[in-house]
């Protein structure tokens, strides 16, 4: 690029967040963390940058293509800027907190940076808020995090939620049981399933067309979809996954019988390191998903904290703050009181104690009424009390 860059110009996918949006984002984030804390989830704070080999090894390989890299001048090793926080929490749990009793409940909030955005989320930097339950394989653990996510969003004011359940390993189990052996054919099948392209799927050689037809038909309201899946003749591994999905649904319905559940058994995008039931959270009238999560093995595949090649059964979720801000009504502007010259600290402290925001004069000769209006104040402190501006 030739010429000087304008000071306000930022790279694609990045933006300044201005008042009052920055404060709104902070309030939403802290509100969620408080909601998680009520259920025993303790906050941790991983660094923005880590050694690349730790950040993208094992399960972290799923985020490798989205990870910015740079050279550390101190250690002379490559560093990575986190593209997702979930696996950082897993690293902390399986290293720094390895000796704590399980299940371990952790929460987090922070910014992530990605190499490119997506069609639904063009932003490359955005906030994540989430929680992880580490060390339990129980279906009740899956239900706990799903319900906590839904209840926390309801607490903020996000209503009409829908939880879309998935089984990302189901497609892999069906492909393994098919006669496909070409990587190209397998990738073509995965693409057709992701697009819900029934004609492309059933037109492929080497697969059981009726089976995949049945899988694609099992997309929709959870109870109907589950019944359709149960009627299919599936490989043993796939049958086991369907059973786990049913157990999680049952556990959810015990505490939240009215929560809207759907199933998409062929959705795998974004769930590359997940091992069991996954879920995405949507709200009526809001573009894109509000968050996603599911079951995985923390510390697996050679990543930090790996316990003899295995890993701890874990489940959790991440909420996307930019999407939440679109789902929530913008808060009304707060009243602000103008403090003319002569108001002392005790006056300000009393007003703060009553919940007011104060704007103090820095010009002793200013017209208090005009200056208060110019600075966007709604009230003025006068004669020891607060009154509304005349205009």
Describe the structure.
By secondary structure, the chain is α+β, with helices and mostly antiparallel strands. The protein folds into 2 domains: 21-327, 2-Layer Sandwich (BirA Bifunctional Protein, domain 2); 336-388. The chain is 35% helix and 23% strand. It is built from 13 helices and 16 strands. Strands 1-5-6-12-11-10-7-9-8 form a 9-stranded mixed beta sheet. Strands 14-13-15-16 form a 4-stranded mixed beta sheet, sandwiched between helices. Strand 13, helix 12 and strand 14 form a beta-alpha-beta unit. Helix 1 runs antiparallel to helix 4 (139-156), helix 5 (168-176) packs antiparallel against helix 10 (236-255) and helix 9 runs antiparallel to helix 10. The two termini are 49 Å apart. Residues 300-309 have low confidence and may be disordered.
Brief overview:
With 391 residues, the chain is α+β, with helices and mostly antiparallel strands.
Task: Give descriptors for this structure.
single chain; 391 residues; alpha+beta; BirA Bifunctional Protein, domain 2; nine-stranded mixed sheet; four-stranded mixed sheet
List the helices and strands and how they pair.
Blueprint (H helix, E strand, L loop, with lengths): L20 H17 L4 E2 L5 E3 H4 L12 E4 L6 E4 L4 H9 L9 E10 L11 E10 L4 H18 L4 E6 L1 H9 L6 H12 L3 H5 L6 H9 L2 E2 H10 L4 H20 L4 E4 L10 E10 L7 E8 L13 E9 H7 L8 E4 L5 H9 L3 E4 L7 H7 L4 E4 L2 E4 L3
Parallel strand pairs: 1-5, 7-9, 13-14, 13-15
Antiparallel strand pairs: 2-4, 3-4, 5-6, 6-12, 7-10, 8-9, 10-11, 11-12, 15-16
